């Protein structure tokens, strides 16, 4: 260190005093250097000795200071019993990590926590409890006092503990379980179009920040750690709920709202407003009013039908005996997301309840160009089944109706076709008639009877096209008009017929009928040279029993049919070789011989 310059002689102060044992002029300065003639020479030796002792002391003190200040962490510093003293920060960090590894069993052990009246155990890692090594070393380095303290003192520095507050809250809430007293959340609900206030009530639970702080401080200390339960109040008060009813909920359903569009007006009735206006609280108990778009659209399904048009995807049809592309068409849709926001501005009003709606053009998801590239170019398979009774019978009419609804169905690559989804409900309003159907093990009249014959025809057409079978179920009784095992019934919503287009090409379903037959044809691009069936022998033959039924219009007599078990194999061939085969198995019950009469005495 650079020393300050020594003062010049004439800068030194002059001390005036009377000489005692020294030589001085009366009233003049004392002269230091040679002793006065009458002073003993041993005085110089004393001075030299005193200077030597002082130098030794200074050297000793300097050495002690250097000793005390060795390293960045003061001597005698420990963390959890791990000595970090007289080390650089990097050395101390390495020592601390090594020491913590040795204490891993203790640090990773389950931590008992008191929650109310219960004590539960949590795993420190699950809540993010850990020791921040670098921050702990920094705290240790700053823990020293003055030189004396650094040389002779000892200190135990608490580790810096970290925790994941969100994870800790999640784990503690799960552990608290039913012991938590949930808040009664504020809300405004509607009974029809009448608003009802739900006033809030406080609950007993956890404060995430307080819980985290308690775990941080108690992890390496007391057992069990007492995590406090606190009273939790919803953010919205009872007075605010009442105000919301008076200023928004009640006026909102006092009358309709008119939505104007360039395709006509749409009326939003009070009932639709009540169904879509959401006045429930978030997890903090705060109510943020909103109109739920999905609920609004569902409530306005009929009015929206007057102004909206669904976009139509491009598809294919059979024209002149060949596949032809049918272009798609744009649709028009009311922007109900924007409407949901705009409604909030007029619902509190008694007058001026009109909103300008925005119509958006919607494009087809599948264009004509998309369809043209899908390789629908040839007849892949066709299957026909026969029926009796002509086209005047109810059963035949049901078969024709479902075939018309399925005609032209187009299945994209990778997609699953569901007959129940495609046709929707098959009941009286859709034009289906009563015809025999199997219910409870016997034939009874039912809407849509005979549709299973179309299902069997469709199943076989997709089966011989090599398409993937997803869902089908054969009849419980065998009917000779169907191929055994590879046939299917249907009974919504429990039974469906589904197949997957497991090819890279589009699949077009075409149907046709005569007065005595139904045909389904699959158009696409052929994958296999052929798909055929081999049947195993019928076995486990069972004979029908005779049962008597109460006579009447719902009783259908039968002659009885044998039951049996059988296997069938679907065989795929390509390039003249069998590439794979799939096994289908089924056991038919013996259909009883039903007699519509009282049993004989």
UniProtKB/TrEMBL annotation:
The keyword Nucleus does not apply. Residues 238-355 form the YoaR-like putative peptidoglycan binding domain. Residues 19-40 are annotated as: Disordered. Pfam families: PG_binding_4 (PF12229), VanW (PF04294). This is VanW family protein. Residues 19-29 have a biased composition (Low complexity). Keywords: Membrane, Transmembrane, Transmembrane helix. Coiled coil: none annotated. The chain crosses the membrane at residues 47-70.
